[in-house]
Every structure is written in structure tokens, then in C-alpha cells.
């Protein structure tokens, strides 16, 4: 790839942001490396890809779809392998019954899906050599034509990190933002002032000025039944959601020193060597919130514009361990079993933050496993000294990169 070839940002929000999840892949914000740079790290990436499973899992409807059919929509198929496990749930964790076919090549749910519901699908398969492949996706089913709903995160009853905003994605464009915002309240047992910010006509996030106080409880009330959000389009939701704030963990990634300091209540509890984005593919700077966690997942360079001369991904690793999403455009902090001697020494990635790990994600003693096991959705990862720009506030759950004045200026209250 030449330096004129830009990385393509993924256009969908995360599954926790309205059910949108694209194929996971590392993504920095700078130009990809030149096509002629056959570095040792590039060779290691290719070697890892060659050792990856040949099984090709396909989840339908397409990742990030909305208005999906409630009848004949959901399906999982595999080529060059057999399915070993498929799990489908609603975003609040309710399991959907389904069955793998006798030949283990496909899966479908047993009954009709619910309207206006976001579903998550997780699938695993093995190839002829027993190598595992994993795929994760989510989609939202069709809503009534003349109504709108807001898909929100976090879920009711969950415990999240101090950086987790309330994020609401509407399935239709809202033209009367003031009326809709009036029907939504977010409060905290800590007494912190909470303000909401509209990023566009379909997304509104709410947060306090500083991170949530640990061990507090946050309540989201949706009183939208009958509210006209756009001409002839009315709300249908009457719902109260509460979630808990856990311990105060903020981690600081320094691309210059190639170290990450994990803090609890401001005190360093662990220092972990890392490898951030290479000089050609720098990692975004700024405050980033973990929005999803995957013990193993696939990372394909083609999904974010890292392709070779044949149009294939520069890397396609189907079993990346301990991956945690930091942006919707493909920035992750994840385990890395193929890098040799890079952690704490050199920045080599395509934009992600890598931690030493082992293939299979089953060794709890690796740095990647430790950080995964000691992190939760909503924890903050602050990335510094990469030399790149600050991540956009709406690229993931990253509104903390706006000042309080800027944040409140986006409110319609």
C-alpha cells in the first residue's frame, strides 16, 4: 500500500452503540506503510496469518444491519470448516434458541425474532486441522414504520467502569431533539451533574463533567411514549434502566516509553510493556473507553483499508486474544502472540496497542490476559505521545475528549 492510500474508517457504531459491529481490525490514523517494506514484524504478521484457521464464518444479516427481518433474517454459515458453537442473545442477555445443522455447516434460530430488538451473535468453527476461527456480529430488527426507538448502552443491571457514558442511538433521524431530550433523564446517586450531547440526529450521549464516582448508581429513564421525534414519527418506550459504577481504573499508554501504567484511584497497580502503532500507522491519542471485550476475535486489515496489491488484507488473524475495543474505527488494545521482543522496545502495530500474550488466550499469566481479566467495559485507556491527532469524540464512547463547555453546547435542554 502506498502512502497515498488512506485507512478507511469503519462507518458503523459498536454493538453497544445501537447494535453495530464491524469486522475487528487494528487501525491507526496515519497512512499505511509502503508496500515494499518487508519488515520482520510484517513477516511475523504474515506467518501468524498462515497459521490461522481456514474456516470462513459468515453471519447474516450483515454486521451492523438495522431493519432486519424478524422471520428469515438470522443465519450463520461456514466454509472450509465446521461450526462448533453459536450463541445468539438480545443485548440484555436473553438467549435465543437455535440449532446447528446435522452437517455442522449452518445455524438458524428456532423461532421468530422480536421487533425492534438488537441481537448479538457469536460463532466459532474449526478447520480440517482443528484450528479455531471466531466471528462476532450484531444487528437490529425492523421497527414499526411510524415509531422510533432508542437503543442504549450500558445495559440494565450491569457494572461498568467510570468512563462509561450513557449512549443512545435512535433508529430514525430525530428532528425535534428538544422534545426527545426532554423525555430522557440521567441521574446519579453521587449527585453529579449530567449533561447530554447530540453528535448527530441519531445519537445522543450523556455524562458528567468528570468520570463517574466509583460505586455509584446511574439511572436512565426513557419517557418517550407518544413523543413526536420527527414529523409523524412517535416514541414508544417507557423504561427505567439502572447500572452500577465499579472501581476507578484508568490506564495510561505512553507510546514514547512503550509502557502502560494501570491505576486504581490514581495509584499505579501495574506497569505493562506495550507496542503501539508504528511511525507509519500511529495510534490515536486521547481518552478512550473500552466498549467491548472479546476473549478471541478476528482482525482483518481489509476492513480498515490495509490491503495488498491483490486487494486482500495485509493481515488476517482469526484468533487475536484478549481484544478490547477502543474505537468504532478499529482501534483495539489486545494480546499479541506473534510479536517477538517488541513489547517495551518498538512500536510495530497498524494502530492498535499490543500486549504480550499466547495463542489460544488460555494462559492467565500473560500481560494480555491480566489486563483483560482486570478490565471491564467502561474503563478508560488514555493514549499519549504517539504524535497523532486526538481521537474524535464520536469515534466510540470517547466524548471525554471534549471540554465540558463544548459538551454542554451540544445539548438541546
Protein architecture, described:
- With about 425 residues, the protein is mostly beta strands.
- Helices cover about 5% and strands about 35% of the residues.
- Among the domains are: about 145-245 and about 400-410, Immunoglobulin-like; about 250-295 and about 305-400, Beta Barrel (L,D-transpeptidase catalytic domain-like).
- The protein has helices at about 40-50, 175-180, 365-375, 405-410; strands at about 55-60, 75-80, 80-90, 100, 105-110, 120-125, 130-140, 145-150, 150-155, 160, 165-170, 185-190, 195-200, 205-210, 215-225, 230, 235, 240-245, 250-255, 260-265, 265-275, 285-290, 290-300, 315-325, 330-335, 355, 380-385.
- The strands form seven sheets. A five-stranded mixed β-sheet has the order 21-20-19-27-22, with no helix packed on it. Strands 1-2-5-4 form a four-stranded antiparallel β-sheet, with no helix packed on it. Strands 9-11-14-13 form a four-stranded antiparallel β-sheet.
- About 50% of the residues are buried.
- Keywords: Acyltransferase, Cell shape, Cell wall biogenesis/degradation, Peptidoglycan synthesis, Signal, Transferase.
- It holds the Pfam family Big_10.
- This is Ig-like domain-containing protein.
Amino acid at each position: 500500500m502506498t502512502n497515498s492510500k488512506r485507512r478507511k474508517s469503519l462507518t458503523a457504531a459498536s454493538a453497544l452503540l445501537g447494535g453495530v459491529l464491524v469486522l475487528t481490525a487494528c487501525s491507526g490514523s496515519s497512512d499505511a506503510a509502503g508496500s515494499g517494506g518487508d519488515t520482520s514484524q510484517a513477516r511475523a504478521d504474515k506467518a501468524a496469518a498462515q497459521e490461522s484457521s481456514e474456516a470462513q464464518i459468515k453471519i447474516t444479516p450483515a454486521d451492523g444491519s438495522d431493519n432486519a427481518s424478524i422471520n428469515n433474517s438470522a443465519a450463520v454459515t461456514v466454509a472450509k470448516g465446521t461450526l462448533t458453537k453459536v450463541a445468539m442473545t438480545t443485548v440484555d442477555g436473553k438467549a435465543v434458541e437455535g440449532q446447528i445443522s446435522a452437517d455442522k455447516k449452518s445455524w438458524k434460530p428456532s423461532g421468530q425474532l422480536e421487533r425492534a430488538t438488537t441481537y448479538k451473535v457469536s460463532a466459532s468453527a474449526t478447520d480440517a486441522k482443528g484450528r479455531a476461527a471466531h466471528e462476532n456480529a450484531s444487528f437490529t430488527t425492523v421497527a414499526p414504520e411510524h415509531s422510533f426507538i432508542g437503543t442504549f448502552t450500558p445495559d440494565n443491571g450491569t457494572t461498568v467502569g467510570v468512563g462509561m457514558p450513557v449512549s443512545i442511538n435512535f433508529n430514525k433521524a430525530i428532528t425535534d431533539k428538544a422534545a426527545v431530550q426532554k423525555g430522557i433523564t440521567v441521574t446519579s446517586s453521587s449527585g453529579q451533574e449530567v449533561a447530554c450531547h447530540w453528535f448527530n440526529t441519531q445519537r445522543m450521549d450523556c455524562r458528567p463533567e468528570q468520570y463517574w464516582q466509583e460505586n455509584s448508581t446511574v439511572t436512565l429513564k426513557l419517557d418517550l411514549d407518544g413523543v413526536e421525534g420527527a414529523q409523524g414519527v412517535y416514541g414508544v418506550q417507557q423504561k427505567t434502566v439502572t447500572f452500577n459504577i465499579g472501581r476507578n481504573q484508568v490506564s495510561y499508554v505512553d507510546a514514547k516509553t512503550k509502557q502502560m501504567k494501570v491505576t486504581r484511584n490514581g495509584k499505579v497497580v501495574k506497569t505493562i510493556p506495550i507496542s503501539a502503532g508504528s511511525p507509519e500507522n500511529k495510534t490515536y491519542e486521547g481518552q478512550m473507553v473500552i466498549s467491548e471485550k472479546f476473549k478471541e476475535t478476528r482482525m482483518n486489515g481489509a476492513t480498515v483499508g490495509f490491503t495488498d496489491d491483490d486487494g486482500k488484507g495485509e493481515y488476517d488473524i482469526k484468533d487475536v486474544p484478549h481484544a478490547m475495543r477502543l474505537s468504532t474505527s478499529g482501534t483495539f488494545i489486545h494480546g499479541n502472540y506473534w510479536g517477538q521482543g517488541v513489547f517495551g522496545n518498538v512500536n510495530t502495530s497498524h494502530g492498535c496497542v499490543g500486549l504480550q500474550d499466547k495463542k489460544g488466550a488460555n494462559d492467565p499469566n500473560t500481560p494480555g490476559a491480566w489486563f483483560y481479566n482486570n478490565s471491564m467495559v467502561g474503563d478508560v485507556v488514555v493514549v499519549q505521545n504517539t504524535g497523532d491527532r486526538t481521537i474524535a469524540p464520536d469515534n466510540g464512547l470517547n466524548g471525554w475528549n471534549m471540554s465540558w463547555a463544548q459538551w454542554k453546547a451540544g445539548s438541546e435542554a
